[in-house]
Amino acid sequence: MSIVSSTSGLVGSSPQSEKKSSLLKASRLDEEVLCSKDDGLRPKRLSDYIGQSELKQVLGIAVKAAIGRGDALDHVLLYGPPGVGKTTMALVLAEELQVQSRITSAPALERPRDIVGLLVNLKPREILFIDEIHRLPRVAEELLYPAMEDRRLDLTLGKGSTARTRTLDLPPFTLIGATTRAGALSSPLRDRFGLIHRLDFYDLNDLQAIVHRTSSLLDLSITSEGCKEIAGRCRGTPRIANRLLRRVRDFAAVRGGASSIDACLVDEALNLHQVDSRGLDASDRRFLSLLLMSHGGGPVGIETLAASLGEDSSTLETVIEPFLLQIGFIQRTSRGRVITTSGRNHLEKI
Ligand code: ADE
Fold first, then answer.
1. What is the structure's pLDDT at 244?
2. Which of 96, 184, 302, 311 has the CB geometry, 3.0–4.6 Å to 134, for a possible disulfide?
3. Which sign does the torsion angle of CA 255, 238, 316, 288 carry?
4. Residue 79: CB within 6 Å of ligand 1?
């Protein structure tokens, strides 16, 4: 199985998205682009993929059935917070189906020919992976409807009175869409996916197993307590777990002396990077402090918080807030965001 990325590049790398991104968004997107490259750390098969057990079960059955019928897998929509393995799962599915996957990001499909080019080059049963599918331009979305439903591409050739329409048949293929905002998809698009699944934050045991697996692949010696310390500080997210592990590896290499990385060394390394005991980074703490110190703990509207932090509200909603909500440090109310007692206690402790 090989990976082909579209002309306009991989996840989040369109010039438009770069222009708009704030510092925080840029650094997290860079991370995504880097991690999109096959660094050999991604699980290749469903059996290597740790966590998301319900999703693995559902997709495992769908893959076997599709192979049995000799047909393409039904279209799949994966949604959930950044870094929880949506792209990884798409690549795993391609491997399971033994087909090629073509990877692109919705903002890169600006002109009709971008999506047309991808669709007409698909071979039977191949996967087209579209990241950030909630940002799909209208024209691309309209071309996708008949392509998904009837394997048909309706093209308009020429302009004005000489315009003609032409229909091309497409081979059976699978569209895998990934999004952090399933609610932002139009219902006609959402309804054309046969399998719709949420990927959630990972629990401590799964994260510990992921850190352990990555350490072995990197040939790193780390104690199980060391793995657990990283697992507890990665915001429930494998991508962050692997990033923290790399920072700990650098710290251990430069510090020297230790034959194995233990919890103490992990603690020192992550404190240096300002990742606290619950995995909050400087941006998360800035968000919480603003809520507490400048707005008396809330309620305060997301747009007000975004303006004070110099971020756009959708970055706060998709990148910062989901984990703070998950660990019960903030609440979303009809009147705005509110810090909880646990959120206050955490800020007072640090
Ligand atoms: N590396 C990153 N995510 C992973 C996962 N879910 N399983 C195994 N290794 C991973």
1. 97
2. 184
3. negative
4. no
Please check whether residue 246 is in contact with residue 253, taking contact to mean a CB–CB distance below 8 angstroms: no
Taking CA 347 as the corner, what is the angle to CA 263 and CA 282, rounded to the nearest 5 degrees? 70
Q: Which of 37, 28, 38, 47 has its CA nearest to residue 180? A: 28
Report CA(208)–ligand 1 centroid distance (Å): 10
Residue bearing tokens 């494998």:
238
- Of the candidates 77, 75, 87, the one whose C-alpha atom is nearest the C-alpha of residue 11 is 87
Instruction: Please indicate whether residue 239 is annotated as part of the active site.
Output: yes
Query: Which atom of ligand 1 is nearest to 42's Cα?
Result: 1
The pLDDT of residue 186 = 96
Rounded mean pLDDT of 237-250?
A: 97
| C-alpha of 83 from chain center | 4
Please tell me if the CB atom of residue 49 comes closer than 6 angstroms to any atom of ligand 1: yes
148 CB contacts (<8 Å, ≥6 apart)?
Answer: 75, 175, 192
87 catalytic? Reply is yes
Count Cβ atoms below 10 Å from residue 318 Cβ, excluding itself. Answer: 18
- Tell me the residue ranges of DSSP E strands in 15-80: 76-79
Q: What is the CA radius of gyration of the chain?
A: 22
Please give the structure tokens belonging to residue 343.
């959120």
- The CA-to-CA distance between both ends of the chain, in Å, stands at 47
pLDDT in tens, 35-73: 444 578 999 999 999 999 999 999 999 999 999 999 999
d(CA 241, CA 202): 11
For the Cβ of 85 lying below 6 angstroms from any atom of ligand 1, the answer is yes
For position 36, what pLDDT does the model report? Answer: 46
* Mutational pocket test of ligand 1: of 34, 210, 239, the residue with most ligand atoms within 8 Å of the beta carbon: 210
Q: Would you tell me the crossing angle of helices 204-217 and 238-255 to the nearest 10 degrees?
A: 50
Q: Which one is catalytic: 125, 233, 235, 239? A: 239
Q: What is the DSSP string of 140-162?
A: HHHHHHHHHHHSEEEEEES-GGG
Other beta carbons within 10 angstroms of residue 246's beta carbon come to 13
Respond yes or no: is residue 341 known to be catalytic. no
Whether pLDDT at 229 is above 60: yes
